[in-house]
Amino acid sequence: MFGGWDAPTKPRLPVRDGRATLCAVRKTDHARRSPEEKLALLRRGDPLRHWESLDDKRQCVLCECTFSGHQVRVVVGRGGHLALHCPSEDCNSTPHEWIRPGNPLLDDKVWEDWVEILNELSETPLRAASSAGRRVHYAD
Predict the structure, then answer these.
(1) 78-132, pLDDT tens digit by residue?
(2) How many other C-beta atoms lie within 10 A of the C-beta of residue 111?
(3) Which of 16, 73, 91, 105 has its Cα between 20 and 30 A from that of 34?
């Protein structure tokens, strides 16, 4: 537990079963929150990526759904701790399984998101390459 939040779990391998095209988003959050409060929750609950606004987009690597901060589910967990989850109907991923949408070969921040997730899944850590040469380099 960190700062009143449930500790995010390690990423699971992506599931590629066609659900991405459906992206059925749950319609309601567990509680109504002001936009300012929701943005503050996203900033505290997602230590890997900064949220500028609720209009920022993320993509879930498990269900491939792209969503905004407005759609992120804030769930009250055990002991009253808050947790962030993917808004897709059948997905409970957390911020550790979200990336910025875009092409990792063209966008440095998207590339860094993928390197972070791959490092979580790999026994041999990667280090990010420069934007000039998108070759994967294994850490020494």
Answers:
(1) 888 889 999 998 899 999 999 999 888 888 888 888 888 888 777 776 665 544 4
(2) 22
(3) 91
Backbone angles phi, psi at 57, to 5 degrees: -105, 150
| Three-state SS sequence of 55-112 | CCEEEECCCCCEEECCCCEEEECHHHCEEEECCECCCCCCHHHEECCCCCCCCHHHHH
CA-based angle 107:113:116, to the nearest 5? 140
pTM over cut 0.85: no
Is 112:131 a contact under the CB 8 Å cutoff? no
